[in-house]
UniProtKB/TrEMBL annotation:
Pfam families: Fungal_trans_2 (PF11951)
Organism: Colletotrichum karsti
Transmembrane segments: none
InterPro entries with a match to the protein in the record: Fun_TF, Zn2-C6_fungal_TF
Protein name per UniProt: C6 zinc finger protein
Amino acid sequence: MNLPSTPSNMTLFTESPQVTPNPTWIWTVDDLELQHHFMTSDELCPGDPILWRVKVPKLAFGNHCVLHLLLAVSALHMARNKPDEASRYKAIADGHYGVGLRQVMDILPNLNRENCGALYIATTLVCSYSFASGPSPGHLLIISDGTEVAWVELLRGVKMVVETMGFEAIFAGALAPMPTEQPPKELPPSEMTERVVLWEPALQRIADLVAVSNDPDTGIYEKMLTDLTSCFQQTCGTAKEPRHAIDGKMEIIIGCVYRTEDEFVQCLKDKKPFALLILAHLVVLIKKLEWLWYMTGWASHILHGVALILGPDFSEYLRWPREEIERLNEERIHKKQSDSSNN
């Protein structure tokens, strides 16, 4: 399902108090099961369990777009955990997702301080649902079959809310108080790797290739490479000062995605080689998000899709991301084995 582009005449401050709930909601046994599952599953409540188990359900009761999307994500997780009933849960998920998404699009043109928190959480759930639905042929994270994917467009609308109103407005009401930034925790050995991710030579190679190309889109590629470099630094550190955590942070890595500008997206739609090579290197960071249940398989799928488009002429430039994904996969398998032996 494709979302329409964010309206150019979007109003940020209106008198509409909130997302109007449907007063005729009637709970079914399936809904109750999915609500319970959402609130008790560790995989569905990563990072801040109080936010997802207490605050978001409370927000959802007054904002049914959030409630529908919450139940949709929970249903996809149940489909994964109960393969014998997967088709039934997926049908339930699709129903809730369709209604929730329509309600989100209804409020998107009328953002205000009262409904921005609901929209922020709803967008997060839309992203989770999109990833949990799994990759499909032609889906390259940002584009799918030549068009920009729905959740990236929606993220841009939320980006404008964050930049205009700030997180203080988002984490108000049912979501209050705003989470405070916690000092970095010392990770256990099972979540660390001694290996250094040598991303700098790989990105520099692409940057050098772009610099001597005389390509008219050079500025677009250089800007994306700068943002990608920052994302790698925050996630993997540098050769001199490496970071050894196996897992990456969603807000950092997906942040690189939603900052992607229209011009770069157009280059991807046009299947321009430099844009695809940059995307292939971003995939390494996507691999570091596979601690999230819905991200499994995405990195390999995207890289395979890029390789099919570029063909053998660019295989040498794809060697590092391909080999790095394999190394990261081995580390994740070792981490899971270590976690299992400790439980």
